[in-house]
Amino acid sequence: MTGDQQGFGKGCHLHLIDGSAFIFRAYHALPPLTRKSDGLPIGAVAGFCNMLFRYVEGNKGPDAPTHVAVIFDHSSKTFRNEIYPAYKANRPELPEDLRPQFPLTRDATRAFNIACIETEGYEADDIIATLSCKARDAGGRVTIISSDKDLMQLIGDGVVMFDAMKNKTIDRDEVFEKFGVAPERVVDVQALAGDSVDNVPGAPGIGIKTAALLITEYGDLETLLDRAGEIKQPKRREALVNNADLIRVSKRLVQLDCETPLDFSLESLEVLAPEPEVLLPFLTEMEFRTLTKRVADSLKVAAPVAQAAPEAEVAAPEVLPFEAAGYEAVTTAEALAEWVARIRARGYVAFDTETTSLDEMRADLVGISLAVEAGRACYIPIGHRAGGGDLFASDSLVEGQLPLAEVLAALKPVLEDPSILKIGQNMKYDAKIMARLGVTVAPIDDTMLMSYAMHGGLHNHGMDELSERYLNHRPIPIKDLIGSGKSAVTFDRVAVADAVKYAAEDADVTLRLWQLFKPRLHRAQVTTVYETLERPLIPVLAEMEMHGIQVDRDTLSRMSNAFAQKMAGLEAEIHELAGGPFNVGSPKQLGEILFDRLGVPGGVKGKTGAYATGADVLEDITTLEDSQPQGARLAARLLDWRQLSKLKSTYTDALQDHINPETGRVHTSYSIAGANTGRLASTDPNLQNIPVRSEEGRRIREAFVAPEGRVLVSLDYSQIELRILAHVAGIPALKQAFEQGHDIHAMTASEMFNVPLDQMTPEIRRQAKAINFGVIYGISGFGLARNLRIPRGEAQGFIDRYFERFPGIRAYMDDTIAFAKAHGYVQTLFGRKIHTPEINAKGPGAGFAKRAAINAPIQGTAADVIRRAMIRMPQAIAGLDAKMLLQVHDELLFEVAEADAAALTQAAKEVMEAAAAPAVHLSVPLTVEAGQGQSWSAAH
DNA sequence: CTCGTCACG
DNA sequence: GACGTACGTGACGAGT
């Protein structure tokens, strides 16, 4: 549109891309990829190229830019360091695998035929500022592609920002929302508020909110500083009066330079189409196969043939397209025999089942899909039934399917053959389905768990997500076949032709993921984790889940009725107190009644505009007996009602529905790859959160029972996370206390408060206990204060004293955060990696990430320990009439014949206490406490 | 389908 | 008195 235009001027639209932001985002969004041929770190370059390509593709419309440039930081030393040496001084070191990628991102930019700009001694932000001023003055429009708040000062007439991550334009309104002032005054606010990330000092105690207030009141920074003496609040006044010079320096630090020298003209930034003969060779050299192909498609030229990679087989899945033509239905004995032969010849097979339910204990097999090479897969329909719900929908099987017995007879030898590897995505599911048909699937690999071992913390590990991420392919959604919500049908009602496309594709995707992941496991150094902590858990958990636990329906039912009665009474009382009926279960209605109608003070509205009415809020209200007797009583009744409501709806009612009609027992399902830290998660139902803390709730455990002649045995690790903390942080006093079997919380209290153990009070011990737990969670003064309901300053004092007394804890925390910042992950003692992609983010996200990073190695190591115990357990108790039923993070629950109870307790205890060895030698002992009884309540 | 709430370690 | 804050989960009912 500007081909006939000579200079840069009216009608032109300049895009300025913040290159560094692209690089860092790319680096943290992707796993640490390396170039296959020589191991060169390439992840950031790959992400950068993908982003540039997406940018180019996305900017072809009517509002396309006429000019564009990517701007980079040249070096970390700039004129700002002369003004203030500490500027950006506390920036963490660059990850070592990132720096060598910087020159490649410049090459990539040029390869896309986009101007690539950097200037010695200036930050990218200054060049962006200079260019955008020039372009605007010339009458053009400017879009800055970045979300960096430091650039927001440039926004104004003709200049906007665009946050490519959120796909959102940032204009004056957004700036006002963020800084409370117009873009012209942003530097004034930043100068006052400072910036801890860039080490801009600002005025102590003044944040953005206060700064915006002051600037709005006084007009601008200079006026404010001149008249600072008039400020009423003494702290603010002093902060400004005493730091005027520092604030002026801060302003020079945040003020972008619009006069950086440029050795090129705006015209030279004209948008040019990428030249295939430049771009494609670059991408090929980087060995970005998928991107090369996509770019070639977009440029409508043939993709260059990649250099023969040493691992040609691994390269295959990324190149082959997904096509239904490669998928077939197997409906004859001959075809099935052929597939069996193919599997035997290959030595491995991707395997997937289709069933009528997500609940493996109720699901019926509908079909099986297999794949032995990328792009070629089959589906064996077995249990498809006629009709989609019409009047004549019969239960009769669709014609032309092989009988189940025949399919099993042909496949069982393969599925059980120790020389043939069976590959699945979430194999526990398929293994359970097959186990119920008498087939033990082994040996196995599981792509979900491979991904979990490599990418834990980066993303989830469901097949659709993995396929999109790593194969650039979006599989057919199951919704397309069975619908969703109320109108959903079961898979057996899906037409065979449709099922073939869907199911064969799943096996195909699984196989390709495996081909991709298998060699990467090793490079990511998580093979041991996968092979010792993930994969062997599959049969162990499958066994536990299938066995289930006996739950007494009558007990639950009686409790439900009792709860219902009590709730009805409370409800009447609550309505009386409220002055009318309302939905007691609605936090919204409750908040309005408490704070608006009854006038209880202190109502706080959350971001959705509703009052917070959580238990802590209601508890505070119950103490207002003098000023708000009605509100206090209402809050007290409500707390009681809520407790009963929770117990009834989530436990006594819902658990009854989970009793399997065939087995009469409750079968949970554990997700191995659900929790980031390595913990298991229990679903449908969740048996890891059965009440125990309150007396009323604990009675629910009376319904979990052992059958006649058997007992439940519960074994739980004592203080396992604190012991691990004592080990990893190397705290002699804690270790000694554990070795001598002392009360760890009392010991901590004694050390901290200088109280002899024999004079310990429960209150002091309680505080020390809260601090001990706080440390594991990445303690903060605020959090501890809220937990203990003490003033913040006091809580901070506790923490300071704790760190003073146990300096190793501080060091552990600092080291862990530094490690996470440098590597993007933290590790358990057993080598499990937990990625922390947010750790280098700005804003409040970083705080979360830091605390999670501190907690993850501790919680994760404990999770690894009990996993190891569980994996060894079947062997250890093989001779006993005993079954492991449940895991609750630090507890294992067994059902055992009365005669074997003592032997089981001893054997299982030994396994648990020795579970860390030999891989890790803990410098603290692990101890296990045991209990037994007819019910879980009695065993605990 | 998201939010607030609350059950567990 | 910058922000918002203990870590990790799953299930429920209400309200959009």
UniProtKB/TrEMBL annotation:
Residue ranges of domain DNA-directed DNA polymerase family A palm in the record: 697-900
Xref: SUPFAM superfamilies: 5' to 3' exonuclease, C-terminal subdomain, DNA/RNA polymerases, PIN domain-like, Ribonuclease H-like
GO MF annotations, alphabetized: 3'-5' exonuclease activity; 5'-3' exonuclease activity; DNA binding; DNA-directed DNA polymerase activity
Keyword Secreted: no
EC code(s) of this entry: 2.7.7.7
Enzymatic class: transferase
Residue ranges of domain 5'-3' exonuclease in the record: 9-272
Keyword terms, alphabetized: DNA damage, DNA repair, DNA replication, DNA-binding, DNA-directed DNA polymerase, Exonuclease, Hydrolase, Nuclease, Nucleotidyltransferase, Transferase
A Pfam match: 5_3_exonuc
Transit peptide as UniProt keyword: no
InterPro entries for this protein: 3'-5'_exonuclease_dom, 5-3_exonucl_a-hlix_arch_N, 5-3_exonuclease, 5-3_exonuclease_C_sf, DNA-dir_DNA_pol_A_CS, DNA-dir_DNA_pol_A_palm_dom, DNA/RNA_pol_sf, DNA_polI_H3TH
Domain (3'-5' exonuclease): residue spans on this chain: 327-522
Catalytic reaction equation(s): DNA(n) + a 2'-deoxyribonucleoside 5'-triphosphate = DNA(n+1) + diphosphate
Family: Belongs to the DNA polymerase type-A family.
Self-association state and partner proteins as the record states: Single-chain monomer with multiple functions.
NCBIfam families with a match to the protein in the record: pola, PRK05755.1
PANTHER family with a match to the protein in the record: DNA POLYMERASE I, DNA POLYMERASE NU
The protein's name in its UniProt record: DNA polymerase I
